[in-house]
Design the sequence.
């Protein structure tokens, strides 16, 4: 399986409103070292969503990166994506595994609750995501999660951990220090003036921790 580590970009249909902007911005992030991308589009335009998902699969694979689909197991299957990210109301990891196969990458949102992550891991999730750790533009009403949760999860759950919610280049080291193997970023990446440089800066945060 692809190593789940480092910068995890998430698309936003308001920041990236059309095919050209979406693909150009993702290309720049990939050139900066992003290796995990989640395609998130909550619209009902199934034709556009399938077209964009297929294009992103091809683009990510050119850069040895993986594409995951937010919440939609069927779209993940139709587009040939590498897996799916599930919210708490979007089906179980076991359902996704049955639909997508043994090689699929399946992640689960666990908010601020260790018990949800333990359950997800028991059902075969490949990673678990906690947050929000800082105020989030994408989900301003998200319940805050404590940094200690990342340390506890790293010790008790046999799956990589994603931190999400208001993460920037300046505060990323806090969640990495606490135990996050991946940092999920929306605005701080795709709203940046220089997306490639921003992706590199996030990756250097991991390198600095390792040093």
Sequence:
């Amino acid at each position: 399986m692809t190593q789940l580590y480092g910068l995890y970009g998430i698309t936003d249909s308001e920041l990236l409103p059309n095919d050209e902007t979406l693909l150009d911005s993702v290309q720049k992030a990939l050139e900066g070292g992003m290796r995990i991308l989640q395609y998130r589009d909550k619209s009902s335009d199934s034709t556009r969503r399938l077209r964009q998902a297929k294009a992103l699969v091809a683009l990510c694979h050119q850069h040895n990166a993986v594409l995951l689909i937010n919440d939609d197991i069927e779209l993940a299957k139709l587009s040939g994506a590498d897996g799916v990210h599930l919210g708490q109301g979007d089906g179980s990891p076991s359902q996704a595994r049955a639909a997508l196969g043994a090689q699929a990458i399946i992640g689960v949102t666990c908010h601020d609750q260790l018990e949800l992550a333990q359950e997800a891991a028991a059902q075969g999730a490949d990673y678990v995501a906690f947050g929000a750790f800082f105020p989030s533009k994408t989900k301003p009403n998200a319940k805050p999660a404590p940094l200690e949760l990342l340390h506890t999860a790293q010790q008790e759950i046999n799956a990589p951990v994603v931190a999400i919610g208001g993460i920037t280049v300046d505060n990323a080291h806090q969640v990495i220090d606490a135990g996050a193997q991946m940092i999920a970023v929306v605005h701080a990446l795709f709203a940046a003036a220089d997306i490639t440089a921003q992706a590199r800066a996030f990756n250097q945060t991991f390198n600095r921790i390792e040093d």
Remarks:
- The two ends are 26 Å apart (CA to CA).
